[in-house]
């Protein structure tokens, strides 16, 4: 198969993995502190997230609210970067309906259901779940690799934070892996 | 919506962020250049497998065919550009790739302040070198000219280190 977009993805995946390896190797050789690697990766992701949104949403109509923005991140943004959508978006606001199911990521024509909200969703916490995160799928699924997984999530945390930043949302983004290659990104909206 | 150019932008923006970070971490341009070359090498040795899986290419029987393959197939596939190829009049195993467009510098107008010796795209040299090594071709790969440094065009030099033997040797499938 020689679809051009797949080649682009392969190149990005390799660049990302070697960025992680390179930073940690440099840290081991005493060129900078170990603990800073995660921060550096996150900062790089932040810059890229800002840059992508800047180029990406030039012609897109303004979003109506914060949830709209989060759905954009889960759908269009995630698809651009990772060729699939976020599988599940949760927010902490309405406990009786706290899970917004996004369509199955492999159905190209499935429509995205817009949920009507009874009231404006205030700033809070969103959890984005990706069941087959592209930056983890090449890693072995064994439990012994779980400790390395955070290194491969830092850049993407920054990516989300940077994207949101350019959409006017200040946030803190963390991530966790429970079972490879699924992971969750937790977005905590900050009041400006 | 998403498109090929968006995905390439992801790579280009990520590369830009990497270079910016390296400029913070290393004072000397040489050190950044070396780091980029090393990273490129590590990518190249893995990328070639991806390339061979994607393209039903014939075995190259000469350095010239190999360089053409790099310029016309590999560069096209991964970066969407086709550098032109020329070879040295004086040195037998030396070839040049001239990049008229270079997506890696799409968002770069000039080198960062105080970074006059920075080979911004040095990762490309490492990638080519690593990929060639995986098909048993040792080569030195360097930027000969660089538009970002004020040269008229951007040119990569590939110098194969061994005289190509006449007998066929095994290649990776």
TrEMBL record, chain A:
Predominant cellular place of this UniProt entry's protein: Golgi
Domain of life, source organism: Eukaryota
UniProt subcellular location: Golgi apparatus, cis-Golgi network
UniProt-recorded name of the protein: Trafficking protein particle complex 6B
Homology family: Belongs to the TRAPP small subunits family. BET3 subfamily.
GO cellular component, one term: TRAPP complex
Sequence intervals crossing the membrane: none
An example Gene Ontology biological process: endoplasmic reticulum to Golgi vesicle-mediated transport
Record organism: Pelusios castaneus
CDD domains reported in the protein's UniProt record: TRAPPC6A_Trs33
Signal peptide range in chain numbering: none
InterPro entries per UniProt: NO_sig/Golgi_transp_ligand-bd, TRAPP_component, TRAPPC6/Trs33
UniProtKB/TrEMBL annotation, chain B:
GO biological process, one term: Golgi vesicle transport
Keyword Nucleotide-binding among UniProt keywords: no
Alphabetical UniProt keywords: Endoplasmic reticulum, ER-Golgi transport, Golgi apparatus, Lipoprotein, Palmitate, Transport
CC per GO annotation: endoplasmic reticulum; Golgi apparatus; TRAPP complex
Stored SUPFAM superfamilies: Ligand-binding domain in the NO signalling and Golgi transport (SSF111126)
Protein's UniProt keywords contain Mitochondrion: no
Localization: Endoplasmic reticulum; Golgi apparatus, cis-Golgi network
Primary residence: endoplasmic reticulum
Sequence similarity: Belongs to the TRAPP small subunits family. BET3 subfamily.
Protein's job: May play a role in vesicular transport from endoplasmic reticulum to Golgi.
Subunit structure: Homodimer. Component of the multisubunit TRAPP (transport protein particle) complex, which includes at least TRAPPC2, TRAPPC2L, TRAPPC3, TRAPPC3L, TRAPPC4, TRAPPC5, TRAPPC8, TRAPPC9, TRAPPC10, TRAPPC11 and TRAPPC12.
Protein name, UniProt field: Trafficking protein particle complex subunit
